[in-house]
Amino acid sequence: MKKFIFKYLLVSFSVFFTFPACVKDMEIDVPETTKEVVVTCLFNPQDKWELTLSETKNIQESDDIYIEDANVEITSETGEIIVLDYTGQKGVYKSDDYPEMGKTYTLKVNIQGHKEISAESTVPNFVKATVPDFEIKWVKYLYPNNLMDYDVFPLQVNFGETVQDARFLFRSYYFDPSEGYKRYMLTMESLDKLKKAGLPENAYTESVTLVDQWLVNQWAFDHILYDFVVDFDLKNRLSHLLHQELKQKTVSAREYEAFGRSVCFGNDFWLNNVSYDVITVIGEGQNINQADLLYSEMNLKYNMDKNSPMGWEFWLEAVQGSKDYIDYYRSYILQVSQRINPYSEPVMVQSNLNNATGIFAGFNRQMILLFIY
Amino acid sequence: MTKQKLTFLLLFISTVVQVSAQKNITISGFIRDSVSAENLYHATIYEANNKQGTISNAYGFYSLSIPSGKVQLHVSFVGYKEQVLSFDAQTDTTINFQLSTKNDLQEVVVTAQSLKQKPTFAGHEQIDMQTVKALPAFAGEQDVLKSLTILPGVQQGYEGSAGVFVRGGSPDQNLILLDGVPVYNATHLFGFVSVFTPEALQSVDFYKGGFPARYGARLSSVIDVRMKEGNKNHPETDLTIGPITSKYTHQGPIKKGNSSYLVSARRTLLDLFVTGIAKISQASNNEVVVPGLNLYDLNAKFNFELNPKNRLYVSFYGGGDRLSSSFKDNYSYEESETKQSTKVKLKWGNQIGALRWTSQLGNRLYLNTSLSSGSFRYNIHNKYTQSVKNQDGEEEIWSDIVYKTRVNNNKLQFLFDWYLPKNKIQSGTSAELNSYLPGEQEIDRHDGQNTQRGNGEVNNKALAFFIDDQLNIGNKFTLQGGLRFDLYDLGGKWHSYITPRANAKLAVHNNLSLFLSYDQMVQPLHLLTNSSVGLPSDIWVPATENVKPETSQQITFGSYLKVNDKFSYKFDSYYKTMDGVINYKAGNSFMDIYDNWENLVETGSGEAWGFENSWNYKTSRLNAWVNYTLSWNERKFESINSGNAFPFKFDRRHDINLGFVYNLTDNIECSAVWTYQTGIAATIPVQDFQAAGPIDYTITDFITNIDIEDTHRIQYFDEYNSYRLPAFHHLDLSVTFKKQIGSLFREWKLGVYNAYARQNAYMYYPQTSPTGETKYKQVCIFPILPSISYHIKF
C-alpha cells in the first residue's frame, strides 16, 4: 500500500507541475479610437507661460503627434489676454509673460475642425514654508502600505500662518554639486560611430531621441547600453566609446532636473502618500499651520554612519497647488501605482479640460535647502 | 408601508380561514433512505386519486391532507426507486417510507424534473451529490460550486475559480449556507476549490429566483448545502486520494437505526513536498525562501433521536488555508556579520457550529429550532528580524505586524412547516447578532514604537419575520406568496425592510408548465473586493447609515416543456435591478482599509436581464444537455464612466454549456463538459500621452514585483469596460472506473481539464517595446490540466 501511495503521489505531482502557466500576446479587437487633444500646462509665477498640445497616441504607435497650428489664448481674471505662440518644437507654445500669484486664468485653445477647448485654474496665494533648525535623529519607519522598513528622520515644515485651504505636495531631493552642474550631449555623428562599432538597431532607434540635447545625467545614455546590449565585451567597448564621444559642459545654476529624488513620507493627519508611492506626500486640509514629514535618504544614512561627508545638498520641495493640480497628481500617482495590479480598478487621471484631456493647473514651488553633508 | 403590512395580514388571515373550512384526513411521516436511514429532503409524495402531492422537508418529514377513502401514494426521490402504496384511509395515518436507490444511472439535476415528480417553481434546482461526482473534476477535485456553473444563468468568474455569478450578481450576493449557517468565504486556494467536501454532503438546493421568504440577506442566489446525517444502520468509510487534496469520511450509527454521526477530514498534501524540499535547500544555502501552502476542512455531525417526534442535530465545520513564506539571508561585510529573517504567515478560514432541534407537533406541524454561529477570519502575521554583529557588539532589530479581519454571525431561528389541506405554510422568525472587524493592524517593534490602527469592531443586530404560503388552486395552478420583514440595526438606528416574494406555476398541459415570479431582496452587508477571485483580502463590512444595504427586484417568466419521456426543454427569462451595490473608488484597494472604509467606496446601481435555455435528453444510460444563456449586465456609479451605465466585468453575452454523462458499462462512466463564455469586459487603455509632471522614476509593483513601465506616460481611456478579453472556453473530460470487490467499492477517476489546451486569459498586462509600441500580454494559468484520483468506500 505504501508503495502504491508513493507511486500515485509521484505521478500526480509530476503531472500537476508539468503544465505551467503560459504568457502570450493577447488577441483583443482594438477598434479605431477617436484621438483626443491633450493639453499640458502646469504653470507657476517663476516660469514663463508654456503649454504643450498633442494628441493621445494609440499604444501601437511609437511617436507622439503634436499640434502645431492652434490658437492659444489665456485670459487673466483682470481681462489681460496672453497669446502663446508656437515655438516650432514638439507642440510647445510659449509666451514671455509670467503667471501671477493669486490670479485665476482661463485657457482657450482653438484648433481647426475641433470644438473650442477651455479650462480654468488659479495660482494659489503664496504661503512661505520654512523648516526650523533641527537635529537629525534617525529612526526606523515601517511604511504600512508596502510593509518595508525605511531609515527616516522627522522634519517639520512651518507655514508661519494658518492656511485656510491648504493644498500641498512635498518631495525630498538631494543635489550633488560635483555632478549636478555638468551637462552631457551626444551628437548624431557620435551615435553613428557607435552604430558602426556594433550598437544594435533597437538601441540606435532609442538613442536617436536623445541626440543633440544637453542632458543632466550620463545615465540616460548608459542605460541604453545596459538595456539593449547583451554581450559583455561589446557592452564594455561601446561604453568606453560612448564616454569618449559624450560632449560635456558646466552650468552655473541648479536646474530642477539635476536634483535626485529620495524618499519622503507624511507623518501628519492631513498628509499621506498615495497607494505605495514613497516619493510624493500630498495633503489637503483646513486651517493648517504646519506639516510633519519623515525624510529618508539611503546614501545620507550610510555616510553619516561612516562619518563620511559627501558634500551633497539636501532639499525639500514644497508645492502649493490649486485643487486641479492636487487632484491631477493624486490620480496620476494612483494610476501608475495600480497599473500592473490585475485586481485593481483602473484609474482615470483627473483632467479639468473641456473638449480635451490633460491638465491646466496653477501652483507655487519652493525649494528649501535643509543642510549640506 | 401600511399597504404592505395590510397585505401581510390578509395573507395570514386567508390561510387561517381555509384551514377551518377543510375536513380531511392527514397522512404524515418520514421518508428515508433504506440503507443508511438518512432522511430524504425534497422527496415527492403524490396521491394519484386526488392528484395532490407534497414534498418532504429538510428532515424528511411530510404531511398530506386528503379526503378520506381509497388512496394510492406514489413516493419518489431523485436516484431512488419509486414506491407505490394503496390502502383505504379513514383516519389520520402515520407512514414512514424507506426508499431504495436505483442501480442504473443517477438522474442529473442540471435539468428540470418531471412535473409529477417535482412540483418546484422557477429558479429552483436541487443538486444531488451523485451529479456532482459524475461531472469532470478540476484537478481531481469534485466541486459543488463549480457544478452550479453548468446551469443556465450561472457563470464562472476567473478560470478555475469556484466563485459563481448568478443572473448579473456578484459572488458576495450569493447566500451560501452549510446546514443553515452562512459561509462567508466558500473557497480554498485563492478560489480554485470550494470548501465543501462532496463525500460529507447530502444535498444542495440552489435558488436563482423565486426565493422562499425564509431566505434573506443576499440579492442574487441561495446555495443551501446540507451535510449528511450519517449512516444510522452501519459504519461506512470513504477515502479519496487526489492531486490537490486527500479526503477521509467516516459515518455510522451511535444507536442503530436512531442516531448517527459523520466525520470528514480533507487536507492538501502539496505542501509536504514543496515545503520539505525548500527546507532541505535552506539548510545548505544562505538565501532561500521556504513557501508553505495548505488547506484543510473538518466536518462533523451528530444526530440523536430524543423520541420518535424529536431529534437533535449538532454540526460543526472548520476549514481554512495557511500560506506561509520564510526567508533568511546571512551575509558578512568587512567585520560585520548580518543575519536577516522574514516570516510571513497568512491564515484564513471559516468556522461554523449549529445546534438544531426538530420537533413534530401533531401530524401537520413541524418545528425546527436552531442556534448557530458562523465566522470567517483572516490574519496576516509578518515577523522581520535583523541582527548585526560587529566589533561594537550585537544589535537586534525586529518588527512584528499582525493584520486581522473578521466577520461573525450568531443566529437563533424558529421555523415552522405547517401542512394544510390546500396550503403549505412555512413561517418563522430569527434574531441575529453580528460582529465585523473590517481591518485592524497592530505593529510591535523592538524600539517600542508600537502602533494600532484600522477600522475597529462593529456589532449589529437583525430581526426577521417571514411567512410563505403555497396554495394549490385546482389541479393546474399553484401559487406561492411570501413576505419577509427585516429589521436591521445600522449603527444604532433600526431600519425596516419589507420584501414580498411571489411565485406562480400554471400546468397548461400535462407536459407544459408556465412560471412567473417576483422577488425583492435586501443585503445588509457588503464585500469590499478588488478582484472577484476569492482572495482572502476580501473584507466583509456591515451596511451603515452612510452605506445603506443593497436591494434588488427581480421578475422572471419561464416555461417547461416535456416533449417526450426522453427530451425536455426549459426556458427562463429575467429582469433584475440592484441598488446600493458598492465599488472601491478608483485606485483604492484593501491596502487602504486603515482609513474609514466608508470613504473608500461609492454606491451605485445595477441592471441585468437575460434569457436562459436548457435542452435535456435522458435515457437509462445517457444524460446529455445543452444550456445557453443570453444576458446583459450593467453597473452605474457616479464617478465612473461620467456617471453612465457600463458593462459589469462579468457581463458575458453568451454562455453555452454542452455536456453528457454516459454509462458505458455498469462499471465505466464517462462524461464531458464544454463551456463557452464571452470574454470578460475590461478597461484597456489603448491610448496614452506624455504626463505633465515628474514621475520619471521606476516603480516596482509591491504585489507582483514587476517594474512598472512608462511612468512618465498617462494611460488614457474614455469608456469603462468597453473592451472584451478573448472568449473563455474549455473542454473537460472524465472517465471513471468503478469496481465492487466484496464489501469494498473502489473508483479510479481520470480527468483532463481544458483538454484542447485553450489559453484562456487569467490576467493581462501591458509591455512596451523599445520603439514605444505597447502590446498587451495575457497570462493563462491552466493550458491543460490532467488529473487522477482514487476513491475507496467500505
User: Looking at CATH, which topology of the largest domain in chain B would you report?
Assistant: Maltoporin, Chain A
Strand content of chain B: over 45%
Let me know the largest β-sheet of chain B: 22 strands, antiparallel, barrel
What is the count of DSSP helices of chain B, taking H or I runs of 4+ residues? 4
Q: Helical content of chain A, roughly?
A: 10-25%
Q: Could you give a quick summary of the protein structure above?
A:
The complex is a heterodimer of chains A (373) and B (794). With 373 residues, chain A is of the alpha+beta class. Chain A has eight helices and 20 strands.
Task: Describe this protein's structure.
The complex is a heterodimer of chains A (373) and B (794). Chain A is an alpha+beta fold and 373 residues long. Chain A has three domains: 37-122, Immunoglobulin-like, CATH 2.60.40; 139-178 and 256-347 and 364-372, Immunoglobulin-like (Sandwich); 183-250, no CATH class. Chain A has helices at 2-18, 177-180, 188-196, 201-208, 219-228, 232-245, 298-305, 323-338; strands at 22-25, 37-43, 50-55, 57-58, 65-66, 71-76, 81-86, 92-94, 104-110, 117-122, 139-143, 148-175, 182-185, 247-250, 260-261, 263-266, 271-273, 281-296, 313-321, 357-372. In chain A, the strands form two sheets. Chain A has a 16-stranded mixed beta sheet that branches. Chain A has a two-stranded antiparallel ribbon with strand order 13-14. Mean pLDDT of chain A is 86; it is low at 12-19. Chain B is mainly beta and 794 residues long. Chain B has two domains: 2-99, Carboxypeptidase-like, regulatory domain (Immunoglobulin-like), CATH 2.60.40.1120; 124-683 and 719-793, TonB-dependent receptor, beta-barrel domain (Maltoporin, Chain A). In chain B, the strands form eleven sheets. Chain B has a 22-stranded antiparallel barrel. In chain B, strands 9-16-17-12-13 form a five-stranded mixed beta sheet. In chain B, strands 1, 4, 7 and 8 form a four-stranded mixed beta sheet that branches. In chain B, β10 (154-156) and β11 form a beta hairpin.
